[in-house]
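User: Modeling request: complex.
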Amino acid sequence: MTRRTFLAECASLCALTMAPSPAMAETTGELDFPLLDLHVHLDNSTIDKVLEIAGQRGVKFGIVEHAGTKENIYPVVLSNDDELRGYLAMLDGKPVYKGVQAEWTDWMGCFSPEMLGKLDYILTDAMTMPGPGGRRMKLWELGAVIGEAQDFMDRYVAWHVSIMEKEPLDIFANVSWLPGGLAPDYDALWTESRMRQVIDAAVKHNVALEISSGFKLPKIQFLQLAKAAGVKFVFGSNGRYPKMGELAYSIEMAKKLGLRKSDMFTPAPDGQKAAQRRLK
Ligand SMILES: [Zn+2]
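Assistant: Request completed. Predicted assembly structure:
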Protein backbone atom coordinates (compact mmCIF):
# COMPACT_ATOMS: atom_id res chain seq x y z
CA MET A 1 0.00 0.00 0.00
CA THR A 2 1.48 3.34 -1.00
CA ARG A 3 1.24 6.33 1.25
CA ARG A 4 -1.24 7.82 -1.18
CA THR A 5 -3.66 4.87 -1.17
CA PHE A 6 -3.27 4.54 2.59
CA LEU A 7 -4.37 8.14 3.04
CA ALA A 8 -7.27 7.68 0.64
CA GLU A 9 -8.39 4.54 2.47
CA CYS A 10 -8.12 6.28 5.77
CA ALA A 11 -10.11 9.26 4.56
CA SER A 12 -12.99 7.12 3.37
CA LEU A 13 -12.89 4.96 6.52
CA CYS A 14 -12.86 8.02 8.71
CA ALA A 15 -15.80 9.45 6.81
CA LEU A 16 -17.71 6.24 7.46
CA THR A 17 -16.85 5.76 11.10
CA MET A 18 -16.69 9.25 12.57
CA ALA A 19 -20.06 10.44 13.79
CA PRO A 20 -20.47 14.19 13.35
CA SER A 21 -19.76 15.90 16.64
CA PRO A 22 -20.89 19.42 17.51
CA ALA A 23 -17.30 20.58 17.09
CA MET A 24 -17.19 19.16 13.57
CA ALA A 25 -20.54 20.52 12.55
CA GLU A 26 -19.22 23.99 11.91
CA THR A 27 -16.58 22.76 9.52
CA THR A 28 -18.78 20.26 7.66
CA GLY A 29 -21.68 22.69 7.44
CA GLU A 30 -24.07 20.20 9.02
CA LEU A 31 -26.78 21.41 11.38
CA ASP A 32 -26.73 19.95 14.88
CA PHE A 33 -30.50 20.21 15.38
CA PRO A 34 -33.56 18.52 13.86
CA LEU A 35 -35.45 20.37 11.12
CA LEU A 36 -38.70 22.01 12.23
CA ASP A 37 -41.05 24.01 10.05
CA LEU A 38 -43.19 25.88 12.56
CA HIS A 39 -45.18 27.86 9.99
CA VAL A 40 -47.40 25.36 8.18
CA HIS A 41 -50.96 26.14 7.11
CA LEU A 42 -53.52 23.40 6.46
CA ASP A 43 -55.50 25.53 3.95
CA ASN A 44 -56.85 23.35 1.11
CA SER A 45 -55.47 20.20 2.68
CA THR A 46 -55.77 17.91 5.69
CA ILE A 47 -53.45 17.03 8.54
CA ASP A 48 -52.99 13.51 7.17
CA LYS A 49 -51.95 14.69 3.70
CA VAL A 50 -49.59 17.23 5.24
CA LEU A 51 -48.05 14.54 7.46
CA GLU A 52 -47.13 12.52 4.36
CA ILE A 53 -45.03 15.48 3.25
CA ALA A 54 -43.41 15.79 6.68
CA GLY A 55 -42.31 12.18 6.34
CA GLN A 56 -41.00 12.64 2.81
CA ARG A 57 -38.99 15.73 3.71
CA GLY A 58 -37.79 14.59 7.13
CA VAL A 59 -39.12 17.74 8.76
CA LYS A 60 -41.33 18.00 11.83
CA PHE A 61 -44.17 20.47 11.36
CA GLY A 62 -45.85 23.00 13.57
CA ILE A 63 -49.35 23.73 12.31
CA VAL A 64 -50.71 27.26 12.63
CA GLU A 65 -54.38 28.05 12.12
CA HIS A 66 -55.43 31.69 11.99
CA ALA A 67 -56.92 32.91 15.26
CA GLY A 68 -58.81 36.11 16.04
CA THR A 69 -62.18 37.69 15.46
CA LYS A 70 -64.30 36.78 12.44
CA GLU A 71 -63.50 40.22 11.02
CA ASN A 72 -60.21 38.68 9.90
CA ILE A 73 -60.95 37.00 6.59
CA TYR A 74 -59.17 33.66 6.06
CA PRO A 75 -60.38 30.19 5.03
CA VAL A 76 -60.55 29.30 8.75
CA VAL A 77 -60.36 31.69 11.69
CA LEU A 78 -60.58 30.24 15.19
CA SER A 79 -62.53 32.76 17.25
CA ASN A 80 -63.44 31.22 20.59
CA ASP A 81 -62.46 28.53 23.08
CA ASP A 82 -64.78 25.93 21.52
CA GLU A 83 -63.25 26.38 18.07
CA LEU A 84 -59.76 26.27 19.53
CA ARG A 85 -60.66 23.11 21.45
CA GLY A 86 -61.93 21.49 18.24
CA TYR A 87 -58.73 22.42 16.42
CA LEU A 88 -56.56 20.98 19.20
CA ALA A 89 -58.66 17.79 19.17
CA MET A 90 -58.21 17.49 15.39
CA LEU A 91 -54.41 17.56 15.89
CA ASP A 92 -54.43 15.42 19.03
CA GLY A 93 -52.09 12.44 18.78
CA LYS A 94 -50.53 13.66 15.51
CA PRO A 95 -46.74 14.14 15.45
CA VAL A 96 -46.91 17.92 15.04
CA TYR A 97 -46.66 21.00 17.21
CA LYS A 98 -49.95 22.83 17.65
CA GLY A 99 -49.84 26.57 17.08
CA VAL A 100 -51.94 29.48 15.93
CA GLN A 101 -51.21 32.52 13.80
CA ALA A 102 -52.71 35.39 15.79
CA GLU A 103 -54.56 38.08 13.84
CA TRP A 104 -54.84 41.80 14.53
CA THR A 105 -54.60 43.16 18.04
CA ASP A 106 -57.75 41.84 19.68
CA TRP A 107 -57.29 38.08 19.38
CA MET A 108 -56.42 37.59 23.07
CA GLY A 109 -59.98 38.56 23.99
CA CYS A 110 -61.38 35.68 21.94
CA PHE A 111 -59.89 32.97 24.17
CA SER A 112 -59.31 32.14 27.80
CA PRO A 113 -55.68 32.11 28.98
CA GLU A 114 -56.17 28.44 29.91
CA MET A 115 -57.04 27.46 26.35
CA LEU A 116 -54.21 29.54 24.86
CA GLY A 117 -51.88 27.76 27.28
CA LYS A 118 -52.75 24.43 25.65
CA LEU A 119 -51.11 25.55 22.40
CA ASP A 120 -47.45 24.77 21.87
CA TYR A 121 -46.85 28.29 20.63
CA ILE A 122 -48.39 31.47 19.23
CA LEU A 123 -47.01 33.07 16.08
CA THR A 124 -47.85 36.33 14.37
CA ASP A 125 -46.45 38.80 11.85
CA ALA A 126 -46.70 42.53 11.11
CA MET A 127 -48.29 42.21 7.68
CA THR A 128 -51.68 43.46 8.83
CA MET A 129 -51.17 47.03 9.96
CA PRO A 130 -53.36 50.01 10.87
CA GLY A 131 -54.29 51.87 7.69
CA PRO A 132 -56.34 55.00 7.13
CA GLY A 133 -58.60 55.63 10.11
CA GLY A 134 -56.76 52.94 12.07
CA ARG A 135 -58.59 50.19 10.20
CA ARG A 136 -56.81 46.89 9.65
CA MET A 137 -54.99 46.87 6.35
CA LYS A 138 -53.45 43.77 4.77
CA LEU A 139 -50.24 45.14 3.34
CA TRP A 140 -50.03 42.47 0.63
CA GLU A 141 -53.39 43.34 -0.88
CA LEU A 142 -53.86 45.65 -3.82
CA GLY A 143 -55.06 48.97 -2.54
CA ALA A 144 -53.01 48.94 0.67
CA VAL A 145 -52.06 52.53 1.44
CA ILE A 146 -48.29 52.62 1.91
CA GLY A 147 -47.49 56.31 1.39
CA GLU A 148 -44.00 57.79 1.57
CA ALA A 149 -41.38 55.08 2.09
CA GLN A 150 -39.39 56.52 5.04
CA ASP A 151 -42.54 57.46 6.91
CA PHE A 152 -44.00 54.01 6.24
CA MET A 153 -40.84 52.32 7.54
CA ASP A 154 -40.91 54.29 10.79
CA ARG A 155 -44.54 53.35 11.37
CA TYR A 156 -43.89 49.76 10.32
CA VAL A 157 -40.96 49.33 12.73
CA ALA A 158 -43.01 50.88 15.55
CA TRP A 159 -45.80 48.45 14.66
CA HIS A 160 -43.45 45.48 15.04
CA VAL A 161 -42.31 46.76 18.43
CA SER A 162 -45.85 47.46 19.62
CA ILE A 163 -47.02 43.95 18.68
CA MET A 164 -44.19 42.34 20.62
CA GLU A 165 -44.80 44.61 23.62
CA LYS A 166 -48.52 43.98 23.85
CA GLU A 167 -49.13 40.43 22.66
CA PRO A 168 -48.07 37.14 24.28
CA LEU A 169 -46.09 35.76 21.35
CA ASP A 170 -43.61 32.97 21.00
CA ILE A 171 -42.67 33.56 17.35
CA PHE A 172 -42.58 36.55 15.03
CA ALA A 173 -42.94 35.40 11.41
CA ASN A 174 -42.33 36.93 7.99
CA VAL A 175 -39.80 39.26 9.63
CA SER A 176 -38.68 42.27 7.57
CA TRP A 177 -41.08 41.53 4.71
CA LEU A 178 -41.92 44.67 2.72
CA PRO A 179 -44.94 45.43 0.57
CA GLY A 180 -44.36 45.01 -3.17
CA GLY A 181 -43.37 48.52 -4.14
CA LEU A 182 -40.77 48.79 -1.38
CA ALA A 183 -39.19 45.36 -1.66
CA PRO A 184 -36.51 46.39 -4.22
CA ASP A 185 -35.23 48.98 -1.71
CA TYR A 186 -34.94 46.47 1.16
CA ASP A 187 -31.26 47.15 1.88
CA ALA A 188 -31.69 50.91 2.05
CA LEU A 189 -34.98 50.88 3.96
CA TRP A 190 -33.94 48.36 6.62
CA THR A 191 -31.32 50.60 8.19
CA GLU A 192 -29.30 49.25 11.10
CA SER A 193 -31.29 51.40 13.49
CA ARG A 194 -34.58 49.95 12.24
CA MET A 195 -33.29 46.39 12.34
CA ARG A 196 -32.03 46.93 15.89
CA GLN A 197 -35.40 48.21 17.09
CA VAL A 198 -37.12 45.03 15.93
CA ILE A 199 -34.33 42.80 17.25
CA ASP A 200 -34.21 44.54 20.64
CA ALA A 201 -37.96 44.07 21.07
CA ALA A 202 -37.61 40.37 20.25
CA VAL A 203 -34.86 39.95 22.84
CA LYS A 204 -36.66 42.00 25.47
CA HIS A 205 -39.93 40.07 25.13
CA ASN A 206 -38.37 36.68 24.47
CA VAL A 207 -39.91 36.32 21.00
CA ALA A 208 -38.18 34.05 18.47
CA LEU A 209 -37.68 35.36 14.92
CA GLU A 210 -38.54 33.28 11.89
CA ILE A 211 -36.10 32.68 9.05
CA SER A 212 -38.68 32.43 6.30
CA SER A 213 -37.98 30.17 3.35
CA GLY A 214 -41.29 31.22 1.82
CA PHE A 215 -40.15 34.82 1.54
CA LYS A 216 -36.37 34.26 1.72
CA LEU A 217 -36.24 36.78 4.56
CA PRO A 218 -34.74 38.31 6.63
CA LYS A 219 -31.58 38.90 4.64
CA ILE A 220 -28.22 37.94 6.08
CA GLN A 221 -27.29 41.36 7.56
CA PHE A 222 -30.50 41.38 9.59
CA LEU A 223 -29.89 37.82 10.75
CA GLN A 224 -26.28 38.56 11.72
CA LEU A 225 -27.39 41.44 13.94
CA ALA A 226 -30.12 39.27 15.43
CA LYS A 227 -27.72 36.44 16.18
CA ALA A 228 -25.24 38.80 17.81
CA ALA A 229 -28.05 40.13 20.02
CA GLY A 230 -28.92 36.61 21.20
CA VAL A 231 -32.20 36.16 19.34
CA LYS A 232 -33.65 32.64 19.06
CA PHE A 233 -34.55 31.53 15.55
CA VAL A 234 -37.26 29.42 13.94
CA PHE A 235 -37.49 27.96 10.46
CA GLY A 236 -40.75 28.55 8.62
CA SER A 237 -42.11 28.02 5.13
CA ASN A 238 -45.50 29.74 5.48
CA GLY A 239 -46.33 26.81 3.22
CA ARG A 240 -49.69 25.83 1.86
CA TYR A 241 -50.06 22.35 0.39
CA PRO A 242 -47.74 20.98 -0.96
CA LYS A 243 -45.04 23.59 -0.17
CA MET A 244 -44.69 22.97 3.57
CA GLY A 245 -41.30 21.79 4.75
CA GLU A 246 -39.40 23.47 1.91
CA LEU A 247 -36.70 25.08 4.03
CA ALA A 248 -33.80 25.67 1.62
CA TYR A 249 -33.32 29.36 2.48
CA SER A 250 -33.63 28.80 6.24
CA ILE A 251 -31.03 26.04 6.12
CA GLU A 252 -28.69 28.07 3.92
CA MET A 253 -28.83 31.02 6.33
CA ALA A 254 -28.38 28.80 9.38
CA LYS A 255 -25.21 27.36 7.85
CA LYS A 256 -23.89 30.80 6.91
CA LEU A 257 -24.54 32.06 10.44
CA GLY A 258 -23.23 28.88 12.07
CA LEU A 259 -26.45 28.47 14.05
CA ARG A 260 -26.34 25.83 16.77
CA LYS A 261 -29.08 24.00 18.58
CA SER A 262 -28.82 26.60 21.36
CA ASP A 263 -29.68 29.38 18.88
CA MET A 264 -32.94 27.68 17.90
CA PHE A 265 -36.37 28.09 19.49
CA THR A 266 -38.26 24.98 20.44
CA PRO A 267 -41.76 25.13 21.92
CA ALA A 268 -41.46 25.94 25.61
CA PRO A 269 -42.43 23.47 28.32
CA ASP A 270 -45.77 23.78 30.03
CA GLY A 271 -45.83 26.85 32.25
CA GLN A 272 -43.20 28.75 30.24
CA LYS A 273 -45.07 29.46 27.01
CA ALA A 274 -45.67 33.12 26.20
CA ALA A 275 -49.41 32.87 26.88
CA GLN A 276 -48.64 31.41 30.31
CA ARG A 277 -45.86 33.88 31.10
CA ARG A 278 -47.66 36.97 29.95
CA LEU A 279 -51.42 36.43 30.43
CA LYS A 280 -51.59 36.34 34.20
ZN1 LIG B 1 -48.85 32.28 7.90
